[in-house]
Amino acid sequence: MATIGFIGLGNMGGPMARNLVKAGHVVRGTDVASQAVTVFAQAGGQAAANVAAAVQGAEIVVTMLPAGSHVREVYTGAGGVLALCGKGTLLIDCSTIDVATARDVAAKASEAGCEMLDAPVSGGTAGAEAGTLTFMVGGDASAFARAEPLLRVMGKNVLHAGDSGTGQAAKICNNLMLGIQMIATCEGFLLAEKLGLDAQKLFDISSKSSGQSWSMTTYCPVPGPVPTSPANRDYKPGFTAAMMLKDLKLAADAAQSAGAVSPLGALAQSLYGLYVAGGHGQADFSGIIRMLAGR
Ligand code: NAD
After folding, report:
1. Is 171 a residue of the active site?
2. How many other CB atoms are there within 10 angstroms of residue 227's CB atom?
3. CA 200 – ligand 1 centroid, Å
4. CA nearest ligand 1 atom 7, residue
5. What are the pocket residues of ligand 1 if the criterion is a CB atom closer than 6 Å to any ligand atom?
6. 13 Cβ neighbours under 8 A, 6+ residues apart
7. Fold for domain 169-292?
8. Which of 28, 31, 137, 285 to probe ligand 1 with, by most ligand atoms within 8 A of CB?
9. Could you list the pLDDT tens digit for every one of the 295 residues in the chain?
């Protein structure tokens, strides 16, 4: 069993860290929000007052932070992970961030004598709770082999995408497709309503036809057909519209710097931008159906 420093005990990191505790690891968790640390300690984790207390003596450090700026600060800032951890520590960043920051921080980790992986996830808070996340991992094969048993405690699918940064590339491409696909699914259900086609009937037919998608069969944006989808709980997240907007911005930046075209990605970004600007950033991203319906 390993001693693990876990930084960022939010909606995703909290349940991920708890699953490591349940598996018998010694987990020292920290977060700038003290309430998150208290909840973690109540679940059997060790409360660490700060990054230093979480990291010192840990064989593995896992981070689950909001964005690239937080990751850069937590690893490379004064009193950050790289200044505190011992040589040979395995560093795993599970946050969704831009490829350039992931590669830069990993290079600095290497200079400090540590192996670092970018390992963003798919599967949302339900997957984090259930330990069924999908991990998309970028970094050396040796570091991946070291991390895999630990990631399997928190996830069902653990996939090596390639060198440093490719885990983030996979996540960004995946969520670009998801954002576009959700809007397409919303449009289909809204058109059905106008044409007098029952939503359940569209679901029954289209989920077995070529319009089928995850946005329909797992996360259906209208109430009814998929009882566990956020549409049945007034679009309480799940995965917030603000997070989807963040990921579409990451995709747009990545497309621009790589010289790739993504016209539908740009449109999806502007629609999610409007939805978030309308005060719905904390609603589930499938709630965009209400804006598209003019409700
Ligand atoms: P969250 O805001 O709930 O959690 C982030 C946590 O990091 C917060 O508790 C915050 O207080 C803490 N934090 C911020 N700066 C810190 C610092 N300097 N030191 C210590 N703690 C700090 O966000 P989340 O939903 O858990 O998402 C985390 C990451 O996972 C994001 O990058 C997100 O894009 C990604 N993600 C989220 C989901 C989802 O469904 N929520 C799904 C897949 C990926």
Report:
1. yes
2. 10
3. 35
4. 8
5. 7-13, 30-33, 36, 64-66, 70, 73-74, 95-96, 121, 124-125, 239, 243
6. 6, 7, 29, 31, 62, 63, 64, 65, 94
7. N-(1-d-carboxylethyl)-l-norvaline Dehydrogenase; domain 2 (1.10.1040)
8. 31
9. 999 999 999 999 999 999 999 999 999 999 999 999 999 999 999 999 999 999 999 999 999 999 999 999 999 999 999 999 999 999 999 999 999 999 999 999 999 999 999 999 998 888 999 999 999 999 999 999 999 999 999 999 999 999 999 999 999 999 999 999 999 999 999 999 999 999 999 999 999 999 999 999 999 999 999 999 999 999 998 899 999 999 999 999 999 999 999 999 999 999 999 999 999 999 999 999 999 999 8
Which among 6, 32, 34, 171 is the best mutation to test ligand 1's pocket, defined by most ligand atoms within 8 Å of the CB? 32
Cβ atoms of 202 and 211 within 8 Å: the answer is no
Q: Quickly name the fold that domain 3-163 has.
A: Rossmann fold (3.40.50)
Q: Domain ranges in the chain?
A: 3-163, 169-292
Q: Are 71 and 44 in contact (CB under 8 A)?
A: no
